[in-house]
Amino acid sequence: MLEGRIVTLRPFRASDLPTMREWFRDPSTARTWGRAPLVADAAFEADLAGKFSRFDASGYFAIDDEHGQLIGRAEYEHLDPVDRTVEVMIMLGSPASRGKGAGTDALVTLLTHLFRDRQAKRVWLTVLAWNLAAIRTYEKVGFVHEGRLVGDCWVDGQLHDQLVMGILRPEFEARWPASRPGGE
Question: Which of left, alpha, beta for 11 (phi over 0: left; psi -120 to 50: alpha)?
């Protein structure tokens, strides 16, 4: 488990599946990840089970709020052992949890783990160019715009651009010194 200020990142439980399935049935939530549905209901449990078996280059976490309620998921994939780069993804599936700092805290908690425990040097992500709330969160954490993938993602019957954003370890540690061992 990874403890943040207001959230906890923990392994998924079987009891999380019905809640997560509902998030992906909500078109407004699922579309922020690129499409709805992401995984057909019949394949949902197998998809998650397969992801849980690959923790060398990937990690998948449930996000619990300060009351222990499941509110989202945070993931990393493609941890490159040579270049020390890794891609992250985060989703707050519970609409009531958005806009309260939980996403920022979850992302800082995940980045702290990746930079400190997994020795990452660069973390990157993609975000749909119209997802302004997510972009503001990423910028608040310290991610910078690195590029644009034009017409990269098919959502709602049309192609949309995605932004590529990244953060380097020194930039993260300068912005979030309390995330370092011995920090306040």
Answer: beta
Tell me the pLDDT tens digit for each residue of 134-171. Answer: 999 999 999 999 999 999 888 778 899 999 999 999 99
Name the residue among 155, 166, 100, 156 with its Cα closest to residue 133: 100
* Global confidence as pTM: 0.84
Q: Are 166 and 136 in contact (CB under 8 A)?
A: no
Which two three-digit tokens encode residue 179? 């995330």
CATH topology of domain 2-179: Aminopeptidase (3.40.630)
User: Where exactly are the structural domains of the chain?
Assistant: 2-179
